[in-house]
Write a structure and sequence with these properties.
By secondary structure, this protein is of the alpha+beta class. It has 2 domains: about 120 residues, Rossmann fold, CATH 3.40.50.10330; about 190 residues, Tumour Suppressor Smad4 (Sandwich), CATH 2.60.200.40. It is built from 10 helices and 16 strands. It has a 6-stranded antiparallel sheet, covered by helices on one side. Strands 12-11-10-7-14-15 form a 6-stranded antiparallel sheet, with no helix packed on it. Helix 2 packs parallel to helix 3 and helix 9 packs antiparallel against helix 10. One of its GO terms (molecular function) is ATP-dependent diacylglycerol kinase activity. It holds the Pfam family DAGK_cat. Its cofactor is Mg(2+). It comes from Pisciglobus halotolerans.
């Protein structure tokens, strides 16, 4: 068997480069003749190499880097008839996909060692189709005013502060959030109305938060569609607080929360609606999202993956607790 490690040499403060020999040895010990490819600044470097390796008959492709590198590798193989297994070694900022697969996020060697468990899961993959292209995504599709913060947060700030950078930028943008007339079709109905944003989620982790989709499953062929039906700053802050308090936002009247295998989304008035796929610009609406059920076999820490997160007892770390306190202070001031 052959494995190809596609790694971003600049991810994780160049820790990947320094640990590469140990990582290659782990896959060799697992029975793979292993080689490596360092991505370059050229567009689609990881994507092109993943496609080449898959077509060359490699049995395993390891995506080592941030969520962007993982997304590129998926886009390189998702459209092929023969798709090799995938493994990931997370070295980015939020590492949403690693969170969902319960891959160690702070130890590159330990992440590679998951191969030794010989556990895999057949993962759902999303496909977004508009007039210009088909693009695959592994975690989240979204559109609306708040999703623009993903483009605006400088990469240097992301790498230093992680999702605190999103907090800061999001708080700055909240006063500018507006409602957009949206038309969204899903399996069991149609939404026609005003919304500030919508999410199409494949996993439970978005932007480092693991409570946005508290009942997610990785292989059921269903997206979780979340439509936020308000642009009021106080109401949005309250929704964030409910989310951080155990996924209770899904019970709010300001949220439409549905399971669906397909989604068609566009603005209702013909205005431009940019689509965000795994944190990157993915073209403009109208867009059709299709869930490709159990499309890629992924090395995972399967025994640690829950069927659903218990929304009654979700761990909230110190950063999130501080954010909750700040939300409470803001909302108290604005309601006086």
């Amino acid at each position: 068997m052959r494995a190809r490690v596609i790694y971003n040499p600049t991810s994780g403060k160049e820790l990947l480069r320094r640990n590469l020999v140990d990582i290659l040895q782990i896959y060799e010990n697992a029975g793979y003749e292993t080689s490596a490819f360092a991505t370059t600044p050229e567009p689609n470097s990881a994507r092109n190499e993943a496609k080449r390796a898959a077509e060359a008959g490699f049995d395993l492709i390891v995506a080592a880097g941030g969520d962007g590198t993982i997304n590129e590798v998926v886009n390189g193989i998702a459209g092929l008839e023969r798709r090799p297994k995938m493994a990931i070694i997370p070295a980015g900022t939020t590492n949403d996909y690693a969170r969902a697969l319960h891959i160690p996020r702070n130890d590159l060697v330990a992440a590679a060692e998951i191969i030794e468990k010989k556990q895999t899961v057949l993962m759902d993959i999303g496909r977004a189709k508009n007039k210009k292209q088909d693009t695959y995504f592994i975690n989240i599709g979204a559109a609306g005013y708040l999703t623009e913060l993903t483009y605006d947060v400088p990469s240097q700030l992301k790498s230093v502060f992680g999702y605190l950078a999103y907090f800061a930028k999001g708080a700055e943008m909240l006063p500018r959030v507006k409602e957009i007339p949206m038309h969204i079709e899903y399996d069991d109905g149609v939404f026609d109305g005003q919304a500030s944003m919508f999410f199409v989620a494949l996993t439970n982790s978005v932007g480092g938060f693991e409570q946005i989709v508290p009942d997610s499953k990785l292989d059921d062929g269903k997206f979780t569609l979340i439509i936020i039906k308000t642009a009021n700053m106080i109401e949005i802050l309250h929704l964030i607080r409910l989310m951080l308090s155990g996924g209770k936002h899904i019970e709010s009247p300001y949220i439409l929360y549905k399971k669906t295998s397909k989604i068609l989304a566009r603005s209702a008035d013909g205005s431009k609606l940019m689509i965000n796929l795994d944190g990157e610009y993915g073209g403009d609406a109208p867009v059709e999202f299709t869930n490709l059920r159990q499309h890629i076999e992924m090395i995972a820490n399967v025994e640690e993956i829950p069927n659903a997160v218990d929304t009654k007892d979700v761990y909230v770390d110190d950063v999130e607790e501080q954010f909750i306190r700040e939300i409470d202070e803001l909302t108290d001031e604005d309601t006086k």
